[in-house]
Amino acid sequence: MIRDLMARRGQEIACFSYDDQHKFRLDDSSIRYYYPPTLGADLSKGFDTFEKLDDTADDHLDSLLKTIMALEQKEGKRVEADVITWRGMMTKFLAAIFTDRDGCASNPLLCR
To answer: Record's Pfam families (predicted)?
Structure first.
């Protein structure tokens, strides 16, 4: 089974975003391109207008599940996937082999 999983290429089946007020949106409106900063950038620019996110509630899993439920309602069938995660978690897994100091925590769940 693991061999089959490794042989297939992952694919995006759905996406979600958060708006400026950190409200859930069932779209890709928050996707941005990465532009490398210019040399000599002022790292304190924008500090006075920075708004800290209230991180007392961890709603990433809720948003992931809302997205999957919306996809299943739209298609009228259950999502057939071996692994469902978000990009940041996969990045942590892939980068873990290159570091020996940083830990990576995950709580995998088996859903049927």
So the answer is: RAI1
pTM over 0.70: no
Kind plus residue range of the DSSP H or E element containing 24: strand 24-25
Residues 38 and 103: their CA atoms lie apart, in Å, by 31
Residue type for position 8:
R
Q: What is the largest CA-CA distance in the chain?
A: 53
Structure tokens at 12: 């995006």
Q: What is the pLDDT of residues 22-65, one digit of tens each?
A: 889 999 998 888 888 788 888 888 889 988 877 777 777 888 88
Domain positions in the chain are 13-27+59-98
Q: Which two tokens stand for residue 81?
A: 């996937």
